């Protein structure tokens, strides 16, 4: 399937922000990175604010698509550990630039509630998914366990993206899942 100009621009924007930070996000740099004629990105996103908003929405849509295509729903603790390990490996491996871009955009959007909303909406979807999975495997306080699990998983992602890309995933995820079950 052929990529649209808009999709190419957004994918290039993710790469730029994920590799070089939010300051690298300009229309001209996105055009160059995407191999698009100068001015193409501004046809879709007239201002930098519009480009940031479009990028935030695109990241949220991409992550939701990945989450929805995750395959079978884990039925037990071992399956949940496997699923979460695969998710962390993807977010810190093939999708590392997108994860870095998401963190950078959270910080950028913190003072702009309109920009922050798509990221927060994605987080609410993920929180509900986590609560449902934990309840499915028998966690009594799925709400509290989901908050704790998300904090631990986000910490692991951030650690792998910034400090130790080779940090082990499975021991941390297994401790989070088994800790939730023990309460």
CATH class: Mainly Alpha
- Classify the helix fraction into a percent range: over 70%
- The end-to-end distance, rounded to whole angstroms, is 48 Å
Unreliable runs? none
> Helical element count?
9
Structure characterization notes:
- This protein has 9 helices and no strands.
- The chain is mainly α and 183 residues long.
- The chain has a single domain, classed as Orthogonal Bundle (Tetracycline Repressor, domain 2).
- Helix 1 (5-20) packs across helix 2 and helix 5 (77-91) packs across helix 9 (170-182).
- The termini are far apart.
- The mean pLDDT is 90.
In short:
This protein has 183 residues and is mainly alpha-helical. Helices cover 75% and strands 0% of the residues.
């Amino acid at each position: 399937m052929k990529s649209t100009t808009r999709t190419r621009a957004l994918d290039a924007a993710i790469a730029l922000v994920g590799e070089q930070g939010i300051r690298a996000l300009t229309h001209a740099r996105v055009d160059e990175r995407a191999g698009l004629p100068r001015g193409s990105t501004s046809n879709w996103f007239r201002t930098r604010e519009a480009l940031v908003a479009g990028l935030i929405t695109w990241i949220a849509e991409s992550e939701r698509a990945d989450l929805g295509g995750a395959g079978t729903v884990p039925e037990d603790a071992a399956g949940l550990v496997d699923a979460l390990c695969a998710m962390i490996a993807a977010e810190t491996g093939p999708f590392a630039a997108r994860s870095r871009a998401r963190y950078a955009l959270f910080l950028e959007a913190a003072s702009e509630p309109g920009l922050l909303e798509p990221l927060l909406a994605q987080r609410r979807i993920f929180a509900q998914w986590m609560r449902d999975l934990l309840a499915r495997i028998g966690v009594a306080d799925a709400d509290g366990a989901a908050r704790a699990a998300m904090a631990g998983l986000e910490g692991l992602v951030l650690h792998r993206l910034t400090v130790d890309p080779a940090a082990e995933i499975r021991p941390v995820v297994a401790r989070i899942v088994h800790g939730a079950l023990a309460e």
